[in-house]
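Input (structure):
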């Protein structure tokens, strides 16, 4: 509980109260212990104290038993004994609930909590996907291409769309962005699909979480306790670590540098933290360590709750200044070795054996080592943890639903929407490209048909020209033949006319000759007759004429 400007977490056996200095609470912390030893109660007490201090809290509820923080605790004989033991009656202890907002990536037990692929960034996305160095560099190129092309990366289908687009057009992009191996792109796509199968599709979308919504206060100035239902999320450590690391990274990038503060701006609690690190890739562990180391300068405290301190990697453990360790169980040499390592991680107290004490702690008891005002870890102290003021355990579905829907946060994030992003743009582009290809194909076909028609027309024209030339040639030849025939006919006609004329001349000449010959004959006949009168008479006219014609004809060949 928060009292006297400090966080009171428990009491030593001698009655001395143990406090966490608010100015040192940004130095992070550890809550460890076997199942049933009181880790959840300690987490609740710390979260309630930060809320009373006016500091918002974000915590992951793995088992559902942190949801009761929205309701006041119930009185009982056990609680009365504890109140009396710690002297809480006069210290302002009372039962009350805290302003609470429920979140759930899947949207079933809280307001949907989403982010976008763009907000995740290439480095964190690569770490979550477990990409190698070459693939990580390629992922950065993919993000750069998306930015240069003005493409929004909202969800996993956007990421797959841009990956496939770049792969299909890698030769075009290589001129500006360098070598892009389609094989490497395909490997990234497979990792994205594997992440989808784990339920990541639910996490990516709009409206994306505005990290500033975690920094709100409720009635009486208490910080809002943001509870992420992780009962389903915890089934896949990859999603769990991805989400938690994203939130821390987003906080680190969003918040200004403030250095040490009188109190934190926000405190994160990672319940079942071993799941955050179990099976995480080396790159992911490095990223977690880096964020935890740097985020305290932004005024954010991070507390890991787990079963054994050895669940936390050394690089992260070194950043945890405030340690609260409940009973640790060790039944095998390996487990005993872990407990010894945990004991050695606490500043030794000469008043007791830390290892033996950790093994013998009862429920609600812990060995704590907290940072002093000078930042130096204090001696290990055995303490009993205070009881929470809110309800312990789960709440009914009716109560949860009422709490969820009564929050203004719910109205902001309840309904998801799918904006016009890379997937839609590239899908349209693909359709347009196909339509353009089809139009080009049609134009080419039409051009081909037009060329074919032109060639056919030219061929027909050529054929017609040849035919016309042949017809003209035949006409010329015919005309020539006709002219020759006419000429020959004319010649024959002239020849015949000549012959006729000759015959006419001959006939005329003959006629004249005959006439002359006849006349001559008659005249000769008369002369002959007179001469040859001894015949007793002259030659007749016709006989004389005939003789005359014969003589003339012989002479003139008529």
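Output (sequence):
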């Amino acid at each position: 509980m928060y009292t006297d400007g400090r966080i009171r977490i428990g009491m030593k056996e001698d009655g001395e109260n143990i406090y966490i200095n608010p100015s040192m609470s940004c130095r992070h912390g550890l809550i460890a212990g076997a199942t049933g030893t009181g880790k959840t109660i300690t987490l609740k007490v710390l979260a309630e104290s930060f809320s009373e201090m006016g500091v918002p809290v974000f915590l992951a509820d793995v088992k559902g038993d942190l949801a009761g923080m929205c309701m006041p605790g119930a009185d009982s004989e056990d609680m009365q004994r504890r109140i009396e033991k710690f002297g809480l009656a006069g210290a302002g202890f009372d039962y009350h609930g805290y302003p609470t907002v429920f979140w759930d990536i899947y949207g079933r037990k809280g307001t949907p909590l989403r982010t976008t692929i763009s907000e995740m960034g290439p480095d964190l996305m690569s770490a979550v996907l477990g990409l190698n160095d070459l693939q990580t560099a390629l992922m950065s190129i993919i993000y750069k291409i998306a930015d240069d092309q003005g493409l929004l990366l909202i969800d996993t289908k956007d990421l797959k769309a841009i990956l496939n687009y770049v792969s299909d057009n890698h030769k075009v992009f290589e001129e500006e962005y360098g070598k892009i191996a389609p094989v490497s792109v395909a490997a990234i796509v497979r990792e994205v699909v594997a992440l989808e199968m784990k339920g990541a599709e639910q996490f990516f979308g709009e409206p994306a979480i505005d990290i500033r919504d975690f920094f709100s206060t409720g009635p009486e100035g208490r910080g809002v306790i943001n509870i992420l239902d992780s009962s389903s999320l915890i089934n896949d450590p990859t999603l769990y670590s991805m989400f938690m690391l994203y939130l821390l990274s987003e906080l680190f990038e969003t918040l200004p540098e403030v250095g040490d503060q009188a109190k934190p701006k926000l405190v994160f609690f990672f319940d079942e933290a071993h799941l955050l690190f179990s099976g995480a890739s080396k790159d992911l562990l490095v990223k977690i360590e880096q964020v935890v180391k740097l985020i305290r300068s932004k005024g954010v405290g991070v507390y890991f709750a787990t079963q054994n301190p050895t669940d936390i990697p050394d690089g992260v453990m070194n950043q945890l200044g405030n340690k609260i360790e409940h009973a640790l169980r060790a039944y095998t040499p390996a487990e005993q070795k872990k407990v010894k390592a945990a004991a050695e991680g606490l500043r030794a107290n000469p008043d007791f054996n830390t290892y033996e004490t950790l093994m013998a702690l009862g429920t609600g008891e812990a060995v704590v080592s907290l940072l002093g005002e000078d930042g130096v870890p204090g001696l290990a102290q055995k303490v009993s943890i205070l009881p929470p003021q809110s309800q312990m355990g789960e709440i009914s579905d009716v109560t949860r639903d009422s709490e969820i829907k009564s929050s203004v946060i719910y109205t902001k994030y309840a309904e998801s929407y799918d904006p016009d992003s890379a997937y839609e743009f590239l899908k349209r582009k693909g359709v347009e490209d196909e339509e353009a290809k089809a139009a080009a194909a049609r134009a080419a076909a039409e051009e081909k048909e037009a060329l074919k028609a032109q060639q056919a027309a030219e061929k027909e024209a050529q054929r017609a020209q040849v035919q016309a030339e042949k017809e003209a040639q035949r006409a010329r030849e015919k005309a020539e033949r006709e002219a020759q025939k006419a000429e020959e006919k004319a010649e024959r006609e002239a020849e015949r006319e000549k012959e006729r004329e000759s015959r006419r001349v001959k006939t005329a000449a003959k006629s004249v000759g005959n006439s002359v010959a006849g006349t001559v004959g008659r005249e000769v006949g008369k002369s002959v007759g007179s001469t040859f009168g001894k015949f007793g008479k002259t030659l007749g006219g016709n006989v004389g004429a005939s003789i005359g014609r014969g003589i003339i004809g012989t002479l003139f060949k008529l």
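Notes: The mean pLDDT is 85. Residues 125-187 form one domain.
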